[in-house]
Amino acid sequence: MTAAAEPTDTGALVMRHADQLAQHTEMPGMLTRTYLTPAHHAASALLTQWMTEAGMTVRRDAAGNVIGRYEGATPNAPALLTGSHFDTVRNGGKYDGNLGIILPIACIAAWHCQGRRFPFAIEVIGFAEEEGVRFKATLLGSRAIAGTFDHSVLERRDDAGISMREAIAAAGFDAAALPAAAYRRQDVLAFVEVHIEQGPVLLDEGLPVGVVTAISGASRFMVQATGLAGHAGTVPMGLRRDAAMAAAEIGLYIERRCSGTPGLVGTVGVLEVPNGAANVVPGRAVFTIDIRAEQDAVRLAAVADVLREMQAIAARRNVGLDINQTHDAASVPCAPWLQAQLEQAIAGLGMPLRHLPSGAGHDAMAVAALTDVAMLFVRCGNGGISHHPDETMTAADAQAAADVFTRFVESFLPQQAAA
After folding, report:
1. How many CB atoms lie within 10 A of CB 274?
2. CA–CA separation, 12 and 357 (whole Å)
3. What are phi and psi of 66, to 5 degrees?
4. Are 172 and 354 in contact, with CB atoms under 8 Å apart?
5. End-to-end Cα spacing for the chain
6. Residue pair 133/89 in contact by the 8 Å Cβ criterion
7. What is the pLDDT of residue 189?
8. Which of 232, 234, 203, 198 is nearest to 215 (CA)?
9. How far is C-alpha 41 from the chain's CA centre?
10. Confidence of residue 8 (pLDDT cuts 50, 70, 90)
11. CA 275 to chain CA mean position, Å
12. What is the structure's pLDDT at 4?
């Protein structure tokens, strides 16, 4: 590792800004910042301030995205896009999403001080909503930018009964203007997102950064198993129609099927026995299935095997299954030509090179409908924990990521020139 591992001004600035941004929360003592709440507006105001101080012109679109533009040497030049989201999960961490906004701002501030401009513009987008917490609809900000916003979600309501359309209007925006938030393809060169890994791979291997190869596709299901409730003391084991044990056996099969294949993961995140009691054979169980993989063929093969085995288990145990697919998203590959330029930036700094997929979803998934995308993962600590207040990273790694991003931008070649 080179001297880039030592925190300097940029890394320290990123860490300070992460601390300051985390002060804007709906719930004192924990970081919760959901779409178009007062805390969300306060965070957008702070991002606007930092973007302006870094020499950018700033605007907000109809989705509430905060967009800072660092003009190129030629006015109105096409832009290299970067950014991430500034909403959070409930009781989340201060670096998820936020890092991908404040780090590019800090890098641009340095170029602004140097009076440096590029043949292209740079736009930093603070995506207003990615997590889907308030209205149970994800990637709202990035879908607006990509021109794929689903207007049917405007009628969804939060826990207080406020519709998304009403929340947008109360914030001073116009939902009818959402189509105008979409970028034109000819105005965009590419999108690169800097994000904490949200996992333990880089940490376990002692690496500060990694190049993302693809954002994994995901298949999710909600399943209800229906057997027959009975007295725990009087129903013989061989005559039981135990819904919970059927669910448990299915979960263990998912674990076996998704083990041993790189990039493939399977999870039963919810397993409940409604109205269960200690002395009753469960007649009903409800559970979720989440299967993800970097390659869609690998994921879909696993899903097919799981669905087939579920039916076999249910038949053997005389249990009925009601299976509903709730989500299906294809994987999003990162563009090889952008990966290559990230690789060159990392190698040029003397850092080890690591490629890895992203098992989590990101704004880059939505932006891929607009332009080629790439992602730079940054090591996080505490075993790679994320979406949790114990989420952490170091100033040294923030500096390393800033150095990679700086070198990437300073050497950036649009696809036509890079080919």
Report:
1. 11
2. 28
3. -105, 120
4. no
5. 30
6. yes
7. 98
8. 198
9. 21
10. low
11. 35
12. 38
Cα–Cα distance measured from residue 355 to residue 71, given in angstroms and rounded to the nearest whole number: 32
The helix-helix angle for 395-410 and 336-348 (nearest 10°) equals 120
Q: For the chain, give the secondary structure using H, E and C.
A: CCHHHCCCHHHHHHHHHHHHHCCCCCECCEECCCCCCHHHHHHHHHHHHHHHHCCCEEEECCCCCEEEEECCCCCCCCEEEEEEECCCCCCECCCCCCHHHHHHHHHHHHHHHHCCCCCCEEEEEEECCCCCCCCCCCCHHHHHHHCCCCHHHHHCECCCCCEHHHHHHHCCCCHHHHHHHCCCHHHEEEEEEEEECCCCHHHHHCCCEEEEEEECEEEEEEEEEECECEECCCCCHHHCECHHHHHHHHHHHHHHHCCCCCCCEEECCCEECCCCCCCEECCEEEEEEEEEECCHHHHHHHHHHHHHHHHHHHHHHCCEEEEEEEEEECCEECCHHHHHHHHHHHHHCCCCCCEEEECCCCHHHHHCCCCCEEEEEECCCHHHCCCCCCCCCCHHHHHHHHHHHHHHHHCCCCHHHHC
Q: What is the pLDDT of residues 225-264, one digit of tens each?
A: 999 999 999 999 999 999 999 999 999 999 999 998 988 9
> The tokens of 241 are what?
């129609």
Dihedral (CA of 396, 117, 374, 290) sign: positive
For the chain, give the percent of residues with pLDDT over 70. 97
**Residue with token string 């300097």:** 8
pTM of the predicted structure, to 2 decimals: 0.89
Q: How confident is the model over 186-209, as pLDDT tens digits?
A: 999 999 999 999 999 999 999 999
Contacts of residue 210, defined as CB under 8 A and 6 or more positions apart, other chains included, come to: 197, 201, 202, 354, 355, 356, 376, 377
Tokens of 143: 């879908």
* Residues 408, 152: Cα–Cα separation, whole Å: 38
Question: Length of the chain in residues, anyone?
Answer: 419
> What six digits make up the tokens of 227?
């057997």
